[in-house]
Specification:
Elements (H helix, E strand, L loop, with lengths): L13 H32 L5 H8 L3 H5 L2 H26 L18 H19 L19 H12 L10
Length: 172
């Protein structure tokens, strides 16, 4: 089990907050699209859809176009990893090492604020900040570079690089 840390991003303008919510909404939708592709392929063939084929399928989606390429790829990786974990548990259950009643297929993310913050914010901010050659503490693993307290100072750079499709205002 990983330790998690909740952080509140303060001192955002309404426009920045709205932009973050919109980015999170697109990230959640892209995760659901990627998971849908994987599930449909699994039901049709009984095999896992590869990450590269799923990226190609998701590339035409409007949610993928509204996010940066690195962010989109990380979201597709998360969906693929969730399904790989499901298949690994199924294999363990077939060998009798895991109770089959505890296994369930990965589920779609709901359109609630909680779902937006747990997956999408982490992926959106981490992918964008990793493009800036910085890092943070995630899921209990410490890395060097930018820390959570410095996140607010890095946000204006993040906004400029991610708001291409959303902002008509050049001040953001």
């Amino acid at each position: 089990m990983f330790a998690t840390q909740r952080n509140r991003i303060k001192h955002l303008t309404r426009e920045q907050h709205a932009l973050l919510r919109q980015l999170c909404h697109h990230a959640k939708n892209l995760y659901n699209v990627a998971l849908y592709n994987i599930r449909q392929h699994y039901f049709a063939t009984g095999e896992l859809l590869s990450y590269s084929k799923n990226c190609q399928l998701c590339k035409g989606n409007e949610n993928c176009k509204m996010l940066q390429a690195g962010v989109s790829q990380q979201i597709v990786r998360l969906a693929t990893q969730a399904f790989k974990s499901f298949l690994a548990l199924q294999a363990k259950a077939a060998m009798g090492q895991y109770p089959p009643e505890k296994i369930r297929m990965p589920r779609y993310l709901a359109a609630t604020p909680r779902a937006l913050t747990t997956v999408a914010v982490r992926v959106t901010l981490m992918s964008t900040l990793s493009m800036m050659n910085t890092s943070m503490i995630i899921r209990g693993r410490s890395t060097t570079g930018l820390r959570w307290k410095a996140l607010a100072r890095a946000l204006p750079v993040v906004w400029k690089s991610t708001c291409r499709g959303f902002c008509s205002d050049s001040s953001v």
